[in-house]
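Following up on my earlier thread - several people asked me to post the actual chain instead of describing it. Fair enough. Here it is, all 259 residues.
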Amino acid sequence: MSDPLAVIAGLPGVPEAVDDARQAVDRLYRHRVLRRASPAVSTESSLRGARASAAIEGADVPLDVLRRDEAHDPVVQGALRASAETGRLGATWRGAPRQVLARLHTVAARGLAPDADLGRPRARDEAPDPLGLGPAPGAKETAARMDGLFELLAGAGKAPAIVLAAVVHAELAVLRPFGAADGVVARAAERLTLVEYGLDPKSLVAVEVGHLELPYAEALRSYLTGTPEGVARWIQHCASAVTLGVREATAICEAMQRG
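Reply from S.P.:
Thanks for posting it. Predicted structure:
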């Protein structure tokens, strides 16, 4: 039986994009600032990532407002909570992804969904469509595809972390399994996958910033076509987002080096 992740990883243009992104991460990890300040870089990267994730949802708040803790928009607050929560959920992600996603949704959707719905898969067939992707699959189909996603995570094997993270991200974004804050959860899960599956173990790469700078919804629509070309385009998009996230992290390092 063929490995679907291996098939995706071998699509035209994907190996080169993944390798370029991996090399960018390797260069970042050699930055001298990280010898003494990698936790501080990770914290700043997480803040910028949360800001970018909220901005993709239409809640664009300047960084200085976040630093002063003056952003009260529930989308922004949810993105900040989800970003903080990823640092506590890493050890659970491989073995219990269903529980991790439920927790991420609980913190991300607070104030956006009824308390009784937090952390629970949607029972409704409809889901909001903030990115204009089209109708979400019905609740039954979504549940089945989520089961398939969990099986994919469990059997990921030697698949490049970028490929796995991109598939996790896309499935959550297009399925919208909770019906609120799904995009924030999807991007947090992508970052968690990049960390826990070995590409970015210190969580330095602000991949969400890359998604904000690129044609994000357009790339997800390519994935939705289900064609090899469309899926490859999405993986290449995610690899480019990693590379741009490295650029953001490098800028953080440079700023810290200058004092």
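The chain has a mean pLDDT of 96. That should answer part of your original question.
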